[in-house]
Amino acid sequence: MASMKYYFAPMEGITQYTLRNTHRAMFGEYLSKYYTPFLSAPKTRKFKKREKNDILPVNNDIFPDYTDKIIPQILANSADNFLWAAKEIADMGYKEINLNLGCPVATVVTKHKGSGLLSDPDYLDNMLKEITASDLFTREDHPKFSIKTRLGITDDSEADKLMEIFARYPISELTIHARVQKDFYRGLPRIEAFKRAVEVYRENGGTADICYNGDINSIDDQNRLMDELKDLSSASEDAPGISAIMLGRGLLSNPALARDLATGSSTLTETELKEYLNMLYSGYETFIQEDRNVIFKMLEHWAFINCHFDNSDKCLKAIRKARSKGEYLAAVRNIFSTCNFIS
Ligand SMILES: Cc1cc2nc3c(=O)[nH]c(=O)nc-3n(C[C@H](O)[C@H](O)[C@H](O)COP(=O)(O)O)c2cc1C
């Protein structure tokens, strides 16, 4: 779809700078934004080293426009903590900062962070009020403030109240993962509830761009979604009522997914996939000492990439068993030469 924008979803432990830089170098033309995995904004006023590394200019500035395209995301349970982290990030030049209202993990939720904030709409309302009225987000040339949310905690009707709240504040973009906290990442996305949320948000005067997120893994998935969104009151013939789709696991499985969705055909080649995997390996190698640990990182990708190979169980087993770079590369050469490649 020519008019649709595509974003790389934040995924903790996976979508750090090595993956983002590799992906941008090869497939970046079709992605408008790359979200970082969340950075925790603790009371101690100190980012974890790994999280800070992920946004340091030195790890991102191979693309001069990184402050526009990379969107750091913050996990925080108070306006104060959020604003501390947001200021640190804005001082590095980033132009948009995202608040995580989606993380479903119990240890996060019980601390009133991520989707945990959705359980207390009044508290969330105040938090957003403080954030958007702060000097950081009202000064001239302020960074954009965006939100990634779910539809609620246990029941998607909770979204009505949440959307009323979001509509009160100057949010640049609202990404809605069409699930509730208790769904985690399972089950079908709640498309009807997503549509209702968009309607409620607009009825209440919300003006942010809307981004859809959840299980868009193929051209067929996108076609189905577009068909279902047709009757949104904000939809028109050439615009489906949303301006962007955020892609997560689908992009891990098929790094060319955004290009496929934009062009309407399957485009990933065997040569591209080989190069992509080689670049990832080289990237991880620069900061991970042991071959075995680099291979562990690569296995996280293989868990998704394996869908491109027919009858690949035996070859994948050899990749998993590799203990050295030599063994790993031999096993990868073997899967490419033995198994049928599926685009
Ligand atoms: C391993 C993993 C880590 C994730 N980490 C984050 C995160 O740090 N921040 C966030 O907002 N969402 C996170 N998510 C959720 C994804 O951004 C996305 O909302 C979800 O995977 C649904 O999109 P998809 O069906 O396209 O994968 C994570 C998901 C997974 C599977």
Layout of helices and strands:
Layout: E1 5-8, H1 17-27, E2 33-40, H2 49-55, H3 57-60, H4 66-69, E3 70-75, H5 79-91, E4 96-101, H6 106-109, H7 121-133, H8 135-138, E5 144-149, H9 159-166, E6 173-177, H10 191-203, E7 209-213, H11 219-229, E8 244-247, H12 249-253, H13 257-263, H14 270-285, H15 291-305, H16 313-321, H17 325-338
Parallel strand pairs: 1-2, 1-8, 2-3, 3-4, 4-5, 5-6, 6-7, 7-8
Helix pairs in contact: 1-14, 5-7, 7-9, 9-10, 14-15, 16-17
CATH class of the largest domain: Alpha Beta
Q: Strand share of the residues? A: 5-15%
Give the strand line-up of the largest sheet.
1-2-3-4-5-6-7-8
What is the architecture of the largest domain at the second tier of CATH? Alpha-Beta Barrel
| Sheet with the most strands, sense and barrel status | 8 strands, parallel, barrel
Order of helices and strands: EHEHHHEHEHHHEHEHEHEHHHHHH
The rounded distance between the terminal residues' Cα atoms is: 19 Å
Ligand identities = flavin mononucleotide
CATH level 4 superfamily of the largest domain: Aldolase class I
How does this model look, in words?
The protein is of the alpha/beta class. The chain has two domains: 5-263, TIM Barrel (Alpha-Beta Barrel); 270-338. It has 17 helices and eight strands. An eight-stranded parallel barrel has the order 1-2-3-4-5-6-7-8. Helix 9 runs parallel beside helix 10 and helix 14 runs antiparallel to helix 15. The chain is globular. The two termini are 19 Å apart. The structure holds flavin mononucleotide. Flavin mononucleotide is lined by residues 9-12, 14, 37-38, 73, 100, 102-103, 148, 177, 185, 213-216, 247-250.
